[in-house]
Recover the amino acids of this structure.
């Protein structure tokens, strides 16, 4: 194991140095604000050499002098013990030594499930609780689709083709109904195309919503069918496409979604994620959908979430604008087109919108 202290102007700068020298497997053991002739942070990091891959891609033990006989067994035991120690520390929360006020801000953010490194970055920029709003607002993007009004359903191409994707249970079908009802309320001519032939009863649910709203609906089983349905609805202002929700780890599922973009038509894609899901699941999910041309992310079921820090975390990592959030199952209604400031306030007060 190698342990080293790093000094830098900020925690984020120190992390960059640590990753460059010790690699991505480095473990942050402590962080402390220092003030001498200048202010800086001192971060202690460690890495287990046995976890570092060599040039061939295999994992190798730490460099040492030549060993023979019983020395090898003793060395293996020592390496095993060091590895167990690293794993034990890895599972503990890093103890950050911060001034009392900033430590309170840090704990406030962690209590809302803001990722540890992002929380440190925020408290570097925020001296008081009120400053967090500005710092967080700058890190998120709630750009309006096409930039006009709270919800403009017009499109640069004469009509708007909007496809909703996301894992099972994200609320795609319900959200399609919410958007369709919004379009009808604004006097737009809408249509729905259902691609969710995988889930039993999915199309029946779409038809019920469509009948309630007086909106036509078509079922498509593949990219060619979808293209024909889009052509059929050429006179409609907005087309809403509801896709199959499956396990995003399934490569075939992602491949089938990719095929839908071969129509050559301008399709806007919104990735729906349930805010009530586990934060790690959301991070992993967005990685699986990253090969697709996602334009916006949408957070659904914010009313069911206990903590909403995962929204901020994902915005920081994924760097996609948030189109809107949903706050319940009611159709029409329970959909909010928030700006950066309002989304920040929702996250900080850790409740439903």
């Amino acid at each position: 194991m190698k342990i080293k202290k790093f000094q830098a102007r900020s925690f984020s700068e120190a992390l960059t140095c640590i990753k460059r020298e010790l690699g991505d497997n480095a473990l942050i053991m402590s962080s402390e604000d220092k003030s001498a002739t200048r202010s800086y942070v001192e971060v202690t990091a460690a890495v287990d050499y046995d976890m570092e891959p060599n040039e061939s891609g295999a994992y190798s033990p730490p460099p040492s002098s030549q060993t023979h006989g019983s020395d090898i067994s003793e060395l293996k035991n020592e390496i095993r013990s060091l590895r167990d120690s690293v794993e034990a520390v890895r599972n503990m929360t890093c103890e950050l030594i911060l001034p009392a006020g900033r430590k309170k801000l840090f704990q406030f953010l962690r209590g809302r499930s803001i990722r540890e490194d992002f929380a440190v970055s925020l408290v570097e920029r925020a001296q008081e609780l009120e400053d967090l709003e500005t710092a967080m607002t700058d890190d998120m993007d709630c750009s309006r689709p096409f930039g006009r009004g709270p919800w403009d359903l017009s499109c640069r191409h004469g009509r708007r083709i909007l496809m909703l994707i996301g894992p099972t249970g994200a609320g795609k079908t319900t959200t399609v109904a919410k958007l369709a009802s919004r379009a009808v309320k604004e006097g737009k001519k809408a249509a729905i195309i259902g691609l969710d032939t995988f889930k039993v009863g999915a199309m029946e649910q779409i038809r019920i919503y469509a009948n309630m709203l007086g909106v036509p609906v078509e079922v498509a089983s593949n990219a060619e069918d979808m293209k024909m349905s889009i052509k059929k609805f050429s006179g409609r202002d907005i087309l809403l496409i509801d896709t199959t929700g499956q396990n995003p780890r399934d490569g075939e599922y992602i491949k089938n979604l990719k095929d839908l973009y071969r129509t050559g038509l301008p399709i806007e894609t919104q990735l729906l994620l349930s805010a009530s899901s586990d934060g790690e699941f959301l991070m992993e999910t967005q990685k699986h959908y990253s090969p697709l041309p996602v334009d916006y992310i949408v957070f659904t079921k914010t009313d069911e979430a206990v903590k909403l820090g995962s929204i901020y975390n994902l915005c920081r990592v994924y760097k996609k604008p948030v189109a809107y959030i949903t706050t319940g199952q009611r159709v029409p209604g329970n959909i909010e087109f928030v700006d950066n400031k309002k989304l920040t306030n929702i996250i900080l007060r850790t409740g439903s919108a």
